[in-house]
Structures are given as structure tokens and as C-alpha cells.
Amino acid sequence: MRWREGTFFQGWRIVLRCTEFRCQDGVRRFASTAILRQSGKRSVVFPEEAFDTREDADVDATSRARREIMAMDSSNVVGELGRAARIDDTLRESSQDRLVAAQYEISFDGLRYAFRQYRYDAFGDALRYAKAEYAKAGFVRDKTFRADWQSAYRPTDEEGQLMHQHGIVFAMGRFHYGGFRYEQLRDAVAYANAHPGL
Prior knowledge:
three-stranded antiparallel beta sheet; 10 strands; four-stranded antiparallel beta sheet; 32% helix
């Protein structure tokens, strides 16, 4: 795990924590978490995907951290009725991805992308498989398919503190620790307790 010196954006300090891990196929991947701080306030932006290089992971985390800061700053703007205007998290999802997903019968449950009975960690993988199926002669569309695109799951502040305490990273819809990935945070914590410092 590597920490990167903080940068500043709109009065917030952004500190990146990049973690290296190995996927089941043995490929090295990197995921960066951004910790945001401003005069007593703190927020964490967890990675949603992993990258081939540490630099790409850091660029993605910085970009997402800046969008989070802009959204937080915008959420404090007073609306027409005198109440604070809130930004809907679902608006941060790519509307283009959702349109393409619906066209190819792909749904997203907040953690995984699904095409028919198959589940994928990455949207690109689901889309490639769906396009290949669509290209087959005799392919039949599922007339019962209904577009369903949930907001991406993000660990809570309490979960984030627990993860930070154990060096656990959330990326690509799973919790990562010691070269392994877990569906549930409690499983990652249990392994981290039994094998600290990995």
C-alpha cells in the first residue's frame, strides 16, 4: 500500500492511498482510494475499478475525488424553496452506459453487471459478451428484460474506518486484502485479523 502526498482542490485536501493486488488470473492490478479533508470534515472516495498501473489508478481516484467535491459543494447550494438542494447519486452514473446497457439487456445491481444468467465485475466485459451473443445467428432477444441500473454500492463511513484500520480496499465490487478478494467485508476483516500486516 502506498500513500501519495496530498493535493488541494476547492479548499479540500486529497490524499491518495494506492493498493496493489493480484486477480485470480495472477494479473497485478492497482486501485486507489481518495481521502478528502477540509477543516474537520472528512470523506472517502472508494475505487470502483482497478487499473494496470498505479498512475492510472491515481488519475482515476483524483478525478472521482474532484467530482465528489464538486457534488458536495453543490449539495450545499440553497434551492428555490429555501432548502438545501441535494445531488442525486444516480446522476453520477454514466447515462451513456445506461443507454447502451439497456440496448444489450445488461443490468447493474450496484455491484455486478448482469447479462442473462452471467455476472461481471466490469461493464466492458458484460458488454463484450452481450455483443458477441447478439451477433450470433438466431439470437433471440429476451422480451421480459426490463432495464435496471442501481446506484453503485459504496462502503459507509463506518465501514471505511474499519477497512482503513485493517488495510482493506474496496475495488471492482469486492473487498481486497492480502492478495485475496471477498464478497463480504466481514470475511475480509476476519482474514485480516488472523493475518495482520499483509
